[in-house]
Amino acid sequence: MPKFIEKELFNSMDKIQEQINAKKDEHKAALTTAQDHAKNGDLDKAKEAKANAEAIKADIEKLEADLNELQAIVDEPVEEPASEQTDTEETLPKPDEEDELKKEQRSAAADPEEEDATQEEKKKQTEKETRGMKKMQTKVNLDSNKTALEDIGAFIKSKGKETRGLTSKGAEALIPVEVINQPKETPETVVDLRTIVNRVKVKTAEGKYPVLENPSDGFPTVEELAKNPEMEASPIRKVDYAIKTYRQQLPVSQEALDDSEADLGKIVADYIAKKSLITSNIAIASKMATFEKVTATSLDDLKKIVNVTIDPAYNIVHVVTQSFFNAVDTLKDGDGRYILQQDITSPSGYKLFGRNVYVVKDTIFGGEAGAQQAYVGSAYDGVLFADRAELGLKWVDNTIYGEILAGVLRFDAEVADPNAGRFVTLDLSGTEEPAAKKASK
Known about the structure:
- This protein is α+β, with helices and mostly antiparallel strands and 441 residues long.
- The protein has 2 domains: 3-76; 176-441, phage-related protein like fold (Alpha-Beta Complex).
- Helices cover 46% and strands 20% of the residues.
- A hairpin with a 2-residue loop joins strand 10 and strand 11.
- This is Phage major capsid protein.
């Protein structure tokens, strides 16, 4: 097989393997989402997530079949075509060659074990080459994000001239999503609130997003051939959004670009990912803080919010500050057991009243350090996150550095359904531990 064809086959196999790896991550995430919905009692969303997982699985199987076909082509031995000869004398063996040929035939007939050993050696060599090729593919897959980071580094060092491997928009380079969403780029202790709210991609700077309110009653009884009664009001409510631009300069000096031996692309991608996460979390939390405010002075008050105040149709979660979490975490029931239940499926590792708990900083809702505050309700129904999906780097003029790097992020967060949750302030200062135990029974 010609080298250039073999190289093209390897490149195609690498790309397919990358797609398979990405699909497997999507499949795992879809299954996790389905399990979460099932545990929370939302069967419709669980079925939808399961169907999505099955569709992704089918895509994986098709890609694996394509990969196996290419693998078979690579593994197929190539036989050298015999040269055509027209001269009769050249096709006939010479006497000496004939004697040698007969000796080889007698030797092969006399020692079949040696022939088997030769075939076994060829088989081992083929397996070795196959293993080597698979090892090469694995290395390429592991280095895929590294390549993207190198492209970012090249863009930075060339001051925007080198855009190989990056999507550009004018003088701006958009950071690949797979780089920004690398799990190790974001500290595990930081919660991404974008994952629990209604995050939608929008194409305009301003617009209206339709939201369907939860119905409170059913259909009325109607006599045969009677006119259909109309609803008193439309259940569809439109939420206005206006995209805001968030940006900040990155102080990267020319000296740092010239002298840096570190992976500058990774450093910048890590910085952008963390800043992006913090920015969106603050915007979402600020909207959660505008919901109807309630003060809870006991665990009974917290239970009432979950059991009575909020419609059971909502998928309730708890987004709590560190101090709120600590206050509840130290309370015990009448048997001396802690109120918070350990659950590995919850982001924080705990559940409160059977609902997921997300822990954020004390100051994220606008309070001071030590604030015991929480959003209790459906984050998905309560907050709309309109995402323009343009997180990028851009070189801009500066009188000190000549040119500096600016990070840009565009989105808007708005309240979608004010009835979906409550903003709770916890005050257990007048509650002694025996009372807390009594209230939790």
